[in-house]
Design goal:
451 residues; alpha/beta; six-stranded parallel β-sheet; five-stranded mixed beta barrel; 22% strand
Length: 451
């Protein structure tokens, strides 16, 4: 069977970095002649791009693998691949657990998929998890959207949060050069993409591994400098970035976001806990007071800015009082969106072996209480949109209502309104908001310039 007859299916778990990696690997497969299949059971090559941040995501991978491993006994030409963080964490152990696998590859090897598959097709069972220097990405990703795109600017993470497995599975920080990032954005603009999200596991660390120091002693290349450098790429209408770390989020960066009109007023800055003792145990490197100062400064410069974050409940040793400090932070700051999770022990992390683990019952109760508060505050925050005219970038048709299109405001709020997708896709349009839900909006298109 030739590659031109072969179909592939990718299932992606986890963060935006994984989604970006999946797009790059899909691009490689299509350059090799593979055709995408929406149905994994019709595919000749199945790739699971995995996440190990939470145990349930990891277990889901094994469930999926079990079904496809059985299928491979009936179809021996089926190629099975596990990529991403579970692959990096487990390595050869994955082959012992699922001997039907053909390729196990860590996230640092996403750009090498073509070469690794050549070894597989030559008859080898391959494990690629050794640390590598990530070569400049010259692949053309198969973008899941025709309007918005992710652009990696820094790989890896040098932080050592006691709950997090990312540094051990994604490797050390490696920044791409500003020239390479701008060139990728220019190519995206030529393909009519309108919005770019700059990605990094810890994007505020961008550039500190690149050479050069300014006269004032700071790194020559920072995220702030990068934003100024890529801001004028013709054709790119909007720029976002994620994920930020409070330890490195500077006032200079806030000022740049205020000054640069293409940078959207949307910030994703995880706080993880509202209690200083828990933050110290997590080795996060900041206090809740410092976090509050960052949000207050953002809102001082950009009053309508949308703030999203991540929070963990039930970290080892967390008391009821310490959990209530997290509730108080959410109550005081009022996030537009908050991703919440109960603490999940991850292999190889310090906190996983501490004796002061919080019971599952307590974690579940705290998560439910936090989620209730998050929904309440988000519903309050979203009311400010009612009656306003918002700029929306139209991305696609509403999958639940073919008469509607959907897109996002500058503040990243999903918005639905009646319209023709053929006419509006990729357009920036003015929409008057008529309905405001906790996490999405409905409106009516405004023709011409609003008064």
């Amino acid at each position: 069977m030739t590659n031109s007859q072969r179909r592939y299916h990718i299932t992606t778990f986890g963060c935006q970095m994984n989604k970006a990696d999946s797009e790059r690997m899909a691009g490689i497969l299509e350059e090799m002649g593979f055709v995408r299949s929406e149905d994994p059971n019709q595919a000749d090559l199945i790739l699971y791009n995995t996440c190990t941040i939470r145990d349930n995501a990891e277990q889901k991978v094994y469930s999926y693998l079990g079904r496809q491993a059985k299928r491979k006994h009936e179809q021996p030409n089926l190629t099975l691949i596990v990529a991403g963080c579970v692959a990096q964490q487990e390595g050869e152990q994955l082959l012992r657990r699922v001997p039907e696998l053909d390729l196990v590859m860590g996230p640092q090897h996403a750009n090498r998929l073509h070469d690794l598959l050549e070894e597989v097709f030559a008859g080898s069972q391959v494990v690629a998890t050794e640390p590598v220097h990530i070569m400049e990405d010259i692949t053309k990703p198969r973008r899941e959207s025709a309007v918005t795109a992710w652009v990696n600017v820094i790989y890896g993470c040098n932080e050592r949060c006691t709950y997090c497995v990312v540094p051990s599975v994604r490797g050390i920080e490696q920044s791409r050069t500003p020239e390479a990032i701008r060139a990728e954005m220019e190519e995206l603009a030529r393909q009519d993409y309108k919005e770019v999200t700059l990605l990094g596991q810890n994007i505020d660390a961008y550039g500190r591994d690149l050479p050069g120091v300014t006269e004032t002693g700071r790194h020559q290349h920072t995220l702030t400098d990068l934003l100024y450098y890529v801001h004028d790429v013709p054709g790119i209408e909007r720029i976002r970035f994620a994920t930020s770390h409070p330890r490195y989020f500077t006032e200079r960066l806030i000022k740049a976001c205020q000054e640069l009109p293409k940078v959207c007023e949307h910030f994703h800055i995880p706080f993880q806990s509202g209690d200083n003792e828990i933050l110290k145990a997590m080795k996060r490197g900041y206090t809740h007071q410092r976090y509050r100062q960052i949000i207050e400064k953002i809102r001082e410069c950009m009053p309508d800015a949308s703030i999203s974050a991540d929070a963990i409940v039930g970290f080892p040793g967390e008391t009821e009082e310490q959990f209530e400090n997290t509730l108080q932070l959410v109550e005081d700051l009022g996030f537009d969106q908050l991703n919440t999770a109960a603490y999940s022990p991850r292999p190889g992390t310090p906190a996983a072996i501490w004796e002061n683990q919080v019971s599952e019952e307590v974690k579940s109760d705290r998560l439910q209480r936090l989620n209730h508060l998050v929904a309440t505050k988000a519903a309050e925050r979203t009311q400010r949109y009612l009656g306003r005219i918002e700029e929306v970038l139209v991305e696609d048709q509403n999958p639940k209502d073919s008469t509607q299109v959907m897109g996002r405001t500058r503040g990243n709020r999903l918005t639905f309104f009646t319209g023709n997708i053929q006419q509006l896709k990729g357009k920036l349009v003015k929409v008057k908001i008529t309905e405001a839900r906790a996490f999405s909006l409905t409106g009516e298109i405004v023709f011409g310039n609003p008064n």
